[in-house]
Amino acid sequence: MLAGLDRIDWTQVQQAFGHGGHLPAALRGLTSSDPDERTSAFWKIDNYVVVQGYLHPAAPVVVPFLIEIADASVHGQEEALDLLYEIHMGYSDAQPELSTQARAAVTRGTEVYFRLLEPASDRLVRAAAASLLAEVRPAGLVAPRLAALAVREPDPELRALFLMCAGDASEPDEAVGADIAPLLEAELMRAASPALARAAASALAFAVHEHTPEAAVRVMLDAMATEFPPAPPGLTWLWRTRSERPLLGLCRVGLAAVCAALPLMPTPREAHNVFEAALSIALPEERGFRHLCDRHEADGSFAREYRRLSEGQALAPPALEGDLGLVLRAALGCERLWQVHSNLLAMYGLPVARAELAALLT
Question: Which of 6, 14, 96, 104 could form a disulfide with 57 if both were Cys (CB 3.0 to 4.6 A apart)?
Answer without folding.
Answer: 14
